[in-house]
Fold PAS domain-containing sensor histidine kinase.
Amino acid sequence: MNDFIATSKENEKMPNQINKIIRDKTQVNQYMRKYFKELSVVKCISDGLVVIDKFHRLYFLNESGKEFYFKPDSIKFYEDVFYGTSYYDMEGSQLNLETLPGARALSGETIANESIKIVRPDKTLYCSINGNPVYDENNVLIFAVLCIRDTTENMLNYMKIEQQRERLLKVEQEKNEALESSMKLKDDFLYLITHEFRTPISVINSALQAIELLCSKEITTNISKYLKTIRQNTFRQLRLVDNLLDNIRYGSGNFKFHFTRFDIVYATLEIIRSVEPYSKQKEIQLDFNSELIEKFVIMDEEKYERILLNLLSNALKFTPSGKRVTIMLTADTVTDSKMLCVSVKDEGIGIPKEMQQKIFERFGQVDGVLSRKNEGTGIGLHLVKQIVHSLSGDIKLESQEGEGSTFSIYLPIGLRESIKETSVLKEDENENCRIERAVSIEFSDIYYN
């Protein structure tokens, strides 16, 4: 261990206080012997071992320690490690003498697996450093020990992997952007075609109204029957087109809402009354139970009608004659929020458990003989779910195959900051005409004589 003691010639150049410590069989020598009993063992360690004493003199305990420094034989003091060399942390910030791990360990800090980048004139290294301060029995710091591990190969491999990952992410991002562009092009095309379909349907519907108005006396019973068939199928096509357009609008973020203040109890009752002819035709009893006598809400009235009409249409389509459909309106609290719950319960075919999520997907339908007898595209419930979620609400389904289904929608009861118009929904002729038209379109799959 005599290698740790400076030569006599060098000692003469040191300050008197340092010479005195070393001549007294220095504490540095004593504690180095304590921590490194066998120098031959230390020399065999692959990691570099470096000691910095309290006078900033630097000692290489093995050859591995020299590999991290430029011209190590010329380094006597820790300050010399900056000769031709720059040091950086892994964030890219340059380190000075005070922020280097060796100087911090010499100040009493324990260094644990700290990675730094060493830029020398001949090469660039990456290393991981552990450092510990060593104290004597009087708790006086004697020296600091650094254990330096070369991580250059691992770091270069990591950087290579990161570059590959970034390239893959970029390729994936480009693919996603191309896919989004393709989907937008598809939606734009579908929107254009669907919108073009709507124009002739509207013309046919207008022509039917003109025939009934202007030629009512000339219409025979058979012709009237044919006109009803044309009108009903026109409404069916109009319903399909409107659902497709709204799905596209929702997907593109162009789905508009117009919030008004109206009595939802009265609105629900009027909607139920408007579908009674269809329920009577199928000999299905419609029941309305409400724990509220009157409740004004801020909501998109037309969207609420659309939601309820879709649920009622499905309930009547899938409920056999002689059964019952019940509509319930209640106020409820869900996760500390006041919600309005509208439930439509039928006694129909029910929905298998494995299909209960699928029916809310676009074009999702329940397979089976009974469902195939009732025509539809499977767009309605998907759109209902989108509208309910856009209104900050939720939709739930409880169903048992063969016993019926209950669809419950939860809508928030709250005021919005800006309301452009107010609707009380009392005897309004235009309002009734609008509801009747909406019913005719939504129930066009149910033939009404």
